[in-house]
């Protein structure tokens, strides 16, 4: 029975592909027809029927190019484009709408029909669906553009610069002492941490101030939990009436570091993830649970507007500094491993964790692939995370109120102890 079905599909494949081309055109046509549904019949240049036929025409053009003449597709495409331009030009005499989005959508429909027949059904379907979504969300897209600030656009362009432009140009091989430095992999890690910070920034931007301290703490942890800890600590001395809600925000921000660590491991060294999962998850939960408990207890307390991010997380100077730090840690790690063995790695992790967890996490995760054992990498990452949270506990205690310092320090110490115990047992 399966062989009969397979033979049927093979024998009728061109017809089936043409059917898909027709349906993809109809999909875009439904969206276009919905937008123009209030116009009188004959005023619409292209609705569901036209788009469906244009998708079918694209599929037929692809078939003719493969069987009759290779000129069939370009000639039919140019004929469609010319006819569409004449129709759009005639419409301008009555409707002063200079947008060519509909024209581009019609030409794309023709191309999707051709792709469905001659290249790949999945690719054509994905393109048609994405096109329909973009066409359907005109007001939402324009609204986001109006809300976009200059430095945010600059950040997005810089992210593209360091990822799709610079990354492919770097050599993917070991260089330097012991060939421990791989420029491509180091820069790829820079892109990874920059992208996470970028997402965190816009999560705060889109969420708005009304979400309060918890929202701020959760998403500030994607970019700078240390900066948020310092900000909330100072705020606890200035605004006593909201003091009780600041500790949950700090604990959430510090706890968000642990999902980030698991993401790094999953992307860079998936084999390390099973060993890291238990200690890192427990450390995170031991911060999240007290945060939720404190929030529940004081949930009716006045909320505080989120601090506005004042620094662009994608400044190229910051990215270069982070890349240099990664390279330095990898060099020091190789040197300390040769000199002191595993003890050197742990010393490096503790020292690096005082300032930053991302750099040492990315370095140890990368080194676990070939230079150190997974157990050493896991314990080093846990040590770095524990030391980093101890530093933030110190900031909360030194710059915040006594109550805030106590509420932050106790869960931090408990999280540290549990993580180290589980890492040693792993």
Automatic annotation (TrEMBL):
Membrane-crossing ranges are 15-34, 46-65, 71-90, 102-135, 186-206, 212-233, 245-270, 276-296, 316-333, 345-365, 377-396, 408-425
Cite the Pfam families for this sequence: DUF4010 (PF13194), MgtC (PF02308)
Tell me what this protein is called.
Uncharacterized protein
Provide the organism lineage as a comma list: Bacteria, Pseudomonadati, Pseudomonadota, Gammaproteobacteria, Oceanospirillales
Sorted UniProt keywords: Membrane, Transmembrane, Transmembrane helix
User: Which part of the chain is the MgtC/SapB/SrpB/YhiD N-terminal domain?
Assistant: 18-142
InterPro entries assigned to the protein according to its UniProt record, in alphabetical order: DUF4010, MgtC_SapB_SrpB_YhiD_N
Task: Using the record's annotation, list all stretches that form the DUF4010 domain.
Answer: 191-400
How far does the signal peptide extend, from start to end residue?
Answer: none
PANTHER family of this UniProt entry? DUF4010 DOMAIN-CONTAINING PROTEIN (PTHR39084:SF1), MEMBRANE PROTEIN-RELATED (PTHR39084)
